[in-house]
Each structure stands twice: as C-alpha cells, then as structure tokens.
Amino acid sequence: MAIPTALLKRFYVKGSLHNSEDGFEFRLKNTIAPATVVSFGPIEVDGEPFGPDQVVITASRPRTANTITAKAPLPLHMGKTVTLRVLGPPLTPGSHEIAVHAVTREVGPVIIEIDDSVAPETGS
Length: 124
Known about the structure:
- This protein is mainly beta.
- The protein has a single domain, classed as Immunoglobulin-like, CATH 2.60.40.
- It has one helix and ten strands.
- The strands form two sheets. Strands 1-2-8-5-6 form a five-stranded antiparallel β-sheet, with no helix packed on it. Strands 3, 4, 7, 9 and 10 form a five-stranded antiparallel β-sheet that branches.
- The radius of gyration is 14 Å and the shape is globular.
C-alpha cells in the first residue's frame, strides 16, 4: 500500500530546519497513523546522501538511525514528534530539498520529501 507523497509531506514540522553545532536538524511529527520504523536512511539533501550512521534520531532517547532494525524498531505513535539531527557540514542559507528514506512494518518503504529553507545567520 503506497502512501501519497502529499500525505507524507505532512510529517514534516514546517520551519524546523536549522543548523546545529555538528550539522543540521529538523523535526517530523506523526499526524497520519501509528507506524513502526524498521529501517531508516539515508537522508538526501539536495541530492547528497547522508547514511544512517550520520543521523541521530531523538524520540524518547537519542539513537543513531543505523540502530533501527526489525528487532529494534522505532515506534511512531500518533502525535509523536521526533528530531532528526544529521551529522556533517551545516547547510548553506536558502532553500533545500530533503528526502527522508525509511521502511515501516505497516507499509514498507516510504520517502518523505521536504522543501524548506535555512535562514541566514545574524550577527550579534
């Protein structure tokens, strides 16, 4: 059962994309249906892949995406928000296209496509 792209886009928390000390991060919120993630990654940013070992997911506790497996899944209950922190270079200011690849027990592979911008840093 394929989930329409427009519906998957609703997982993204608008405006949550920003740079962090060791890369960048954004949030996803499950507003569709309970899901069980059994595989996570890669995350592509403007066509550049970041592997599961470069992604830290914080739900109830932080864990790298490469630890999410069928035997150690990530449950995503309705209303649950998770933060995805991608370790690597910060994003340049401006618009970015992001594709989050995951596999759920319920529907199989999904790709959440995100379009958002990183604001330029302001001096203090």
